[in-house]
């Protein structure tokens, strides 16, 4: 499905005359983007208006050394070759709960560990209660208010040691502890673009940064991390670049 969507987007780019340059982009100055291509060559691209849409990546903690095989990120979970018999999910936020239900439907024995006192703690308590009730119906085990002491990969699976000398073992471990904004290593400092306390790119109601003509949309702005939010922000930017308010 992903490859089909990628091909479809490439076809749309071609039909609309959009020039796609594949590589890693960085600001050497506010008006330029330097692109390092896969073959090692570089290309400088200039534009009157620039939109930053670098998104986010799965958050990582040193205690959970993600290797893509035994200890997974949410990205890795979409690329696994077989369904695990058992899975421990670290974090009962939105992403963790989504994967819990998905793997449960696929026949995996799912256990969730959450340091907060309830699932999706950023939402209203009534929502958490409803969700936890549905988890229980599906026989998805949820442990809240727990602290993880150690994680290790052993011959018989992933060992997760909890405070109080309790240990859980599973075939795979999915780490779902939030996301990190992709605002680093893209030269924002060279362009003079302002970042917030969490690394988010600061924008106004037009999605414009503190540098005139440079905009940002999606996760990297630190707003709600949903595709439909990024899509709406993209439309706002396009309208403003075209001279509308």
Percentage beta strand: 25-35%
Fraction of helical residues? 25-40%
Distance between the termini: 37 Å
Q: Show unreliable segments.
A: none
The total of helices stands at 6
Topology as H/E string? HEEEEEEHEHEHEEEEEEHEH
- Derived from helix and strand composition plus strand pairing, the structural class reads alpha/beta
Number of strands: 15
- Report the sheet with the most strands, covering strand number, pairing sense and barrel closure: 5 strands, parallel
- Sum up the overall morphology in one term: elongated
Cα-atom Rg, whole angstroms?
21 Å
Order of neighbouring strands in the sheet with most strands = 6-13-7-8-9
- The pLDDT mean sits at 95
List keywords for this structure.
245 residues; alpha/beta; five-stranded parallel beta sheet; three-stranded antiparallel beta sheet; 27% strand; elongated
Describe the protein in words.
By secondary structure, the chain is an alpha/beta fold. The chain is built from 6 helices and 15 strands. It has helices spanning about 1-15, 75, 95-105, 125-135, 190, 225-240; strands spanning about 25-30, 30-35, 40-45, 50, 55-60, 70, 85-90, 110-115, 140-145, 150-155, 155-160, 165-170, 170-175, 180, 215. Strands 6-13-7-8-9 form a 5-stranded parallel β-sheet. Strands 1-2-3 form a 3-stranded antiparallel β-sheet. The protein is elongated and about 60 Å long.
């Amino acid at each position: 499905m992903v490859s089909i969507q990628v091909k479809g987007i490439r076809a749309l780019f071609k039909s609309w005359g959009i020039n796609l340059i594949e590589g890693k982009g960085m600001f050497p100055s506010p008006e330029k983007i330097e692109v390092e291509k896969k073959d090692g060559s570089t290309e400088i691209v200039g534009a009157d208006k620039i939109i930053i849409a670098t998104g986010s990546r799965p958050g990582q903690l040193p205690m959970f050394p993600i290797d893509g095989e035994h200890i997974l990120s949410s990205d890795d979970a979409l690329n696994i070759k077989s369904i695990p018999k058992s899975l421990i999910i670290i974090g009962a936020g939105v992403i963790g709960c989504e994967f819990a239900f998905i793997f449960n439907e696929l026949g995996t024995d799912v256990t969730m560990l959450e340091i907060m006192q309830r699932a999706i703690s950023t939402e209203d308590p009534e929502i958490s209660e409803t969700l936890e009730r549905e988890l229980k119906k599906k026989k998805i085990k949820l442990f809240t208010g727990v602290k993880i002491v150690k994680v290790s990969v052993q011959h018989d699976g992933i060992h997760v040691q909890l405070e109080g000398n309790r240990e859980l073992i599973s075939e795979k471990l999915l780490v779902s502890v939030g996301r990190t904004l992709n605002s680093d290593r893209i030269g924002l400092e060279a362009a003079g673009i302002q970042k917030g306390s969490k690394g988010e790119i600061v924008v106004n109601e037009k999605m414009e940064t503190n540098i005139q003509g440079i905009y940002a949309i999606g996760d990297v702005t630190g707003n709600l991390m949903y595709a439909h939010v990024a899509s709406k922000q993209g439309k706002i930017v396009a309208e403003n670049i075209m001279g509308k308010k």
